[in-house]
Amino acid sequence: MHVRHLSVADFRSYTSAELPLEPGVTTLVGLNGQGKTNLVEALGYLASLSSHRVATDAPLVRAGAERAVVRGAVMQDGRETMVELEITPGRANRARLGRSPVRPRDVLGSLRTVLFAPEDLALVKGDPGERRRFLDDLLVARQPRWAGVRQEYDRIVKQRSALLKSAQPYLSRRARVRRPRPGAEALDPASEAASALHTLGIWDAQLAGVGSSLLYARLRLLRDLGPYLAKAYDEVSNGQSDARVSYRSSLREGTAARLAAGEVPEIPELHEEILASLAAVRDQEVERGQCLVGPHRDDVLLSLGELPAKGYASHGESWSFALGLRLAAFQLLRTDLGDDPVLVLDDVFAELDVGRRERLAAMVGDAEQVLVTAAVPEDVPAALAGRTFRVTLGSVEEVVADDA
Amino acid sequence: MYEGAVQDLIDELGRLPGVGPKSAQRIAFHLLQADPADVERLAHALTEVKARVRFCEVCFNVSEAERCRICSDDRRDRTAICVVEEPKDVVAIERTREFRGRYHVLGGAISPIDGIGPQDLKVRELLTRLADGTVTEVIIATDPNLEGEATASYLSRMLRDVGVQRVTRLASGLPVGGDLEYADEVTLGRAFEGRRLLDA
Ligand SMILES: Nc1ncnc2c1ncn2[C@@H]1O[C@H](COP(=O)(O)OP(=O)(O)OP(=O)(O)O)[C@@H](O)[C@H]1O
Ligand SMILES: [Mg+2]
Ligand SMILES: [Zn+2]
C-alpha cells in the first residue's frame, strides 16, 4: 500500500499542511525543529492511533488549538480509501473511513506503517514496557482485532490492581487494624475479607481468560518473527553474531522456562497456567497491592549469541538490533499480508556509520513506499534518492531537482 | 466569568453528566432568553422529581410510591427476577415486551477502580428476596462489558451457593447485521460462550 496524500490541521507545529505523495522514496529535509518528524508522526498516528514519541494526545494538538485533524488517502490494490482522525485531548477521538463515521478502532488496518526512529534504541536499552509495546503494536498491525483484546486486558489489570490495593487492609496478614472505607457499612472483618477474596477470584478468571489469548498471540508472533530478525540483523551488521529473541514470562518457573525455549502451548493450557501462577503469588500480591502475574509483567529477552543485548551490546550493536527488529516487522507484515506497509525512516541515518547506512538503504529500497526524514541531506544514501520536500517552520514545499 | 446568578447557573449545569463548560454556557443563555413560563415548568419538574420520586423498596427501580408499578402489578410473574444495573435498563427490557417477571436494580456494577464492590450494590437485598423460594429463575442482565461480566459471574456464583434453581445470563456477542470476520476476539469469545442449541 502507499499514501497518495497526507493532510494535517492543527497538528503539532502545523496550522495546516498538505503533502502529496507517490510510491517510491520521498525525503523530507529541513533544519532541526522545523517539523519533519511531526509529519511522519501524524502518519504513524493514522496507522496505530498512537504516537511513537508521546503517550498522551495533548502534545499532538497545536498549542492554542482545540483539536487536531489528520487525513490520509491510502491506495491499496488500486483502490483509494480516505482515513481521517480528529484528535481531541481528554476525549475519544473521532474517526472516518471514506465518508462514514466509524469507531476509531475500525480504522486500524486501513493504513499500515513500520516506523524507524531514534527512539527505537529504547527497544534494546529501555524498560520491558517498550518491548511489550513493540510486540502488541505489531500484533495489531498484523490483525487489527487484537486492539480490542489489548484494551480489555489493560482494563482488567487496572480493575484487579485497584481491588488488590483497596482490599489490602482486609487481606494482608500484616494488617492488624482494620480501616473501613468511609461510608461503607460496618461488616465484620472476616466477612469483608471473604468478600474481597471472592471478588478477587472473579478478576483472576477475567485476567486468565483474556490474558491467555494475548499471551498465546504474542508467543506465536515472536516465533514467527525470530527467523526474520536473525536474517535482518545479519544483513544490517554485515554477518556478525546472531540475534535472538525469547519470551520472558511472569508465570511459574517451569512454564516460564518452556515459553523461553520457544514452546507455544494452546490457550486452555495457558489459561490454567495463569490461574495457577496467580494462586502461587497470591500472598505477595496482597502484601504489595499489585498485580504480579500476566502478560503485562512479561518481557522479551534480546540476545546476541550467548549474551543479552541489554547491558552487554555496544552502542552500534544496540542500534543494529533495533533496526533488525523493525526490519523484521516489515518483512513479517510484507509476507503475511502480501502487501508492503509504508516504511518511515525518521532521522535514522544520522545515527549510523556509512556501512550500516548503505546496507539499510539496500534492504528497504524495494519497498512500495518509503518516507525518509533528515536534517542533513548528505546523510541519506544515494540509493534512496527520490522526491524531496523542504520543511521550514511548519510549511512544506517540494524541492525541484535543479535547486536541491 | 459572569456575574453571580448567571455564573452559578453555568456552574450547576456544568456538573451534570455529559455537559461540558461550553454546553453549560449555551444552555444558560438559552434559559436567560426563554419564556419565563417555560423556565418555570423546568424548575417545577426538577423540584417535583426530587420530592416525589424515590426508589422502590422491593426492586430499587425509580418509583413514585413505596413500590413501583411493576412490583405492585399482580399479573407479573413472581417466579422470575431479572437483575439489571440501572433503572434505564428496566425501561429498555420493558420495551421488548419479552419479559413478564419482575426486576432487581443493583445500582451499578462491580468496579474496583471506582471503589464499587458487591457491598455497594443491592446484592444483599436480592438475596433477601430469594429467601422464601418463590423465585425459581434469576436472569442476569448486566451490561455486556468487563464490569458487567464481572458482576454477572459474581452473582452467578453467589446464587448457585444459595440454591436458585435456574440462573441465566442474557446472551451477548455479535451485533445483529454485523459481520463475523470483523468481530474482535473478545466479542467473538463471548458469543461462543453464549452459544445455544438450534431447535431441530
Ligand atoms: N503541540 C505543538 N504546538 C506547537 N508547536 C509544537 C507542538 N509540538 C511540537 N511543536 C514544535 O515542533 C517542533 C519540532 O518539530 P519536529 O520534531 O518535527 O522537528 P524536526 O524537523 O523533526 O527536527 P529534528 O531534525 O531536530 O528532528 C518544535 O519546534 C516544537 O516546538
Ligand atoms: Mg525529527
Ligand atoms: Zn419495584
TrEMBL record, chain B:
A zinc finger (C4-type) spans 56-71. Transmembrane segments: none annotated. The keyword Nucleotide-binding does not apply. Gene3D superfamilies: 3.30.60.80, 3.40.1360.10, 6.10.250.240, RecR Domain 1 (1.10.8.420). It comes from the Bacteria. Residues 79-175 form the Toprim domain. Keywords: DNA damage, DNA recombination, DNA repair, Metal-binding, Zinc, Zinc-finger. CDD domains: TOPRIM_recR. One of its GO terms (biological process) is DNA recombination. GO terms for molecular function: DNA binding; zinc ion binding. HAMAP family: RecR. Belongs to the RecR family. May play a role in DNA repair. It seems to be involved in an RecBC-independent recombinational process of DNA repair. It may act with RecF and RecO. NCBIfam families: recR. This is Recombination protein RecR. It comes from Phycicoccus duodecadis.
